[in-house]
Amino acid sequence: MRRRLKNVFRLGVKELNSLRRDPVLVFLIAFTFTFAVYTVATGVQTELRNASIAVVDEDRSELSRQIRAAFLQPYFQTPVLLDLDEIDAAMDASRYAFVIDIPPGFQADILGARQPRLQVNVDATAMTLAGNGAAYIQTIISGQLTEFLNRSDLQYIQPVTVTMRTMFNPNLDSSWFMSVMQIVSNITMLSLILSGAAVIRERERGTIEHLLVMPVTPGEIMLAKIWANGLAILLAVIVSLYVVVQGILAVRISGSIALFVFGAALFLYAMTALGIVLSTFAKSMPQFALLAIPFFVVMNMLSGGTSPLGGMPKSLQIIMQAAPSTHFTSFAQAVLFRGAGIEIVWPQMVAMVAIGTLLFLLAMMRFRATMSSAH
User: Fold this and answer.
1) Is residue 43 classed exposed, middle or buried when 0-12, 13-18 and 19+ CB atoms within 10 A define those classes?
2) pTM of the entire predicted model
3) In what side-by-side order are the strands of the sheet with 98-102?
4) C-beta of residue 355 within 8 angstroms of C-beta of residue 327
5) Which of 62, 65, 56 is nearest to 111 (CA)?
6) Phi and psi at residue 122, to the nearest 5°
7) What is the distance between the alpha carbons of residues 244 and 239, in angstroms, rounded to a whole number?
8) What whole-number distance in Å separates Cα of residue 280 and Cα of residue 225?
């Protein structure tokens, strides 16, 4: 047993040295967990920011001017006045995300309690901007109507007062969410690439024949590749969380980073095994990339990081439970965003270990077959 552990350790050190001498992979790891995390967190906006808006003011009243002046930066650009016949051309040319049409006699109808209709045209090709922006516009207009009526002889009293309490991200800053989810996505991608590339590299360089004549088993070779590549990714994750996420982006991490790193290690156990499985079906790096990309895209898009898992069809939710990324995304969000402890996230950790063990056994079977054919 001790000899096997030594073999696994020495082969892992050899793997780390091979990785260190590969400038492309070293650059990929450094770029992925630094610049890529920062640019995605600061560049991808899910909240409303600097949206283009135009107003067709057919009323030309005090109320319509008040509504037009209420759309302020940083949420909206300065509203542009349009004529009624310019709406279709402006929307078709995608010059404005929102066009508000205030009908003639709007203020008089409001004062006369006749409930007029105000039209908001939304360019829904950008779905997130359209959904958030429409809600902002509705809130702003409702607020201006309430303020206007309270200044007049009519008193508008809302029957219900809604109090919003935002937890875990009080300023609704998308960079808090995007930075952490980008790290989760990068772990998924690199765990597949590095583990698969380690096997392909042995085959392309002809060093797999050297391993065959050494007193080591395929299981020891595979374990060495898993811990070595997993360690490289974990170190990059720790640096990214402390330097990029907490340092540069000033994101508040509510939970334990140590617990997250431990969960990430369990996830890497599963994903590196999957990468080895895929590498046994490929003869070269281009073939491996063609196999790995669909797996990464599906797991990244449907694991719950991009869109909530509960909003997907029930059958798809059941299928995605077989993917380790689904459980890791839930684990990461609970620990880093909500400060959950191990007593809450242990089911996700058990699921990652179970899925990882199945993938490990499959990888060992495939790797042994590959080594035998090479011999």
Assistant:
1) exposed
2) 0.80
3) 80-81, 53-57, 98-102, 119-122
4) yes
5) 62
6) -120, 130
7) 7
8) 14
* CATH class of the structural domain 53-151: alpha beta
**What is the Cα–Cα distance from 209 to 222, expressed in whole angstroms?**
15
CA distances from 227 to 11, 88, 96 (A): 10, 59, 52
Structure tokens at 227: 């811990």
Alpha carbons 179 and 191: distance in angstroms, whole number: 18
- Chain centre distance of CA 143: 34
Count CB neighbours of 5 within 10 A. 11
The count of other CB atoms within 10 Å of the CB of residue 223 is 22
Q: Where are the domains of the chain?
A: 2-44+173-374, 53-151
In whole angstroms, give the CA distance from residue 348 to residue 54.
Answer: 48
The phi, psi pair for 205, rounded to 5°, reads: -85, -5
Three-state SS across 93-145? Answer: CCCCCEEEEECCCHHHHHHCCCCCCCEEEECCCCHHHHHHHHHHHHHHHHHHH
Question: Mean pLDDT, 10 residues at a time, over the chain (375 residues)?
Answer: 81 85 88 92 79 92 91 90 90 90 90 87 82 87 85 58 74 81 92 86 70 72 86 94 92 90 95 90 86 90 84 90 94 91 94 94 83 59
